[in-house]
Amino acid sequence: MKFKTLLAAMTVMLASTVFFCSCGSDDESIEGSWKVASLSEELIINGKTVASESDSFVDEEEWLIFKGGTITAVSRETDDGETYVSYNSFTYTVDGDKLVWVDEGHKETYKYKISGSKLTLTMEEEVEELSDEAISYYAEEYKIKEVKSVKYAIKAILNKVKDSEVPAATEASSLPK
What are the pLDDT digits (tens) for 69-81? Predict the structure, then answer.
């Protein structure tokens, strides 16, 4: 599997989980509406970053809305003059500086930090079971003699926005093209 394919799959998974929101208040609560400003991902083999990718969301917009234990991920994308808005919801809990969300039984944990109107989410996940095929792929693709560990690291930066800045489901057909 190519690294870009892995990143694309992780980006989709992250997009459906990372587009957060925050209320319009100045408190340090994760509750509210957040707009994704940037997303970066790294592939780390044997402790060294071998590939990375960043996205500044030029062609699409992503939001995460946190409210009462539910995250609603909102995505707006324009393709060939048509604007599409999609929504996905899942649950979350906060424990200290950890944000845990669950989507169809899949659980992910992110460390989060709020500074003013900026929310930063980070996650580093080790691939625990590497098949012989995966080890061969990584060794060949990145010219590594022995693959001992593989990790993925994700960092997302989101900016606090007013709830009214997030497209509502009824606005989908009237969004600007």
Answer: 999 999 988 888 8
Using DSSP's 3-state secondary structure scheme, residue 13 falls into helix
Give me the residue label for tokens 């044997």: 46
Helix (H, G, I), strand (E, B), or coil: what is residue 139? helix
158 CB-side CA count, 13 A = 33
Which residue is it, tokens 């919801």?
A: 89
CATH number at residue 56: 2.40.128.280
Question: Which residues form the domain of 73?
Answer: 3-172
The pTM is what?
A: 0.72
Is residue 177 included in any domain, yes or no?
A: no
Q: What is the pLDDT of residues 106-132, one digit of tens each?
A: 899 999 999 999 999 999 998 888 899
Q: How far apart are CA 55 and CA 81, in angstroms?
A: 21
Residue 165 lies in a domain: yes
> Which residues have CB under 8 Å from 74's CB, separation 6+?
19, 62, 63, 64, 65, 85, 86, 87, 166, 167
Domains contained in the chain, number:
1
| DSSP state at residue 42 | E
Strands 98-103 and 82-95, by their bridges, are: antiparallel
Residue 114: inside a domain, yes or no? yes
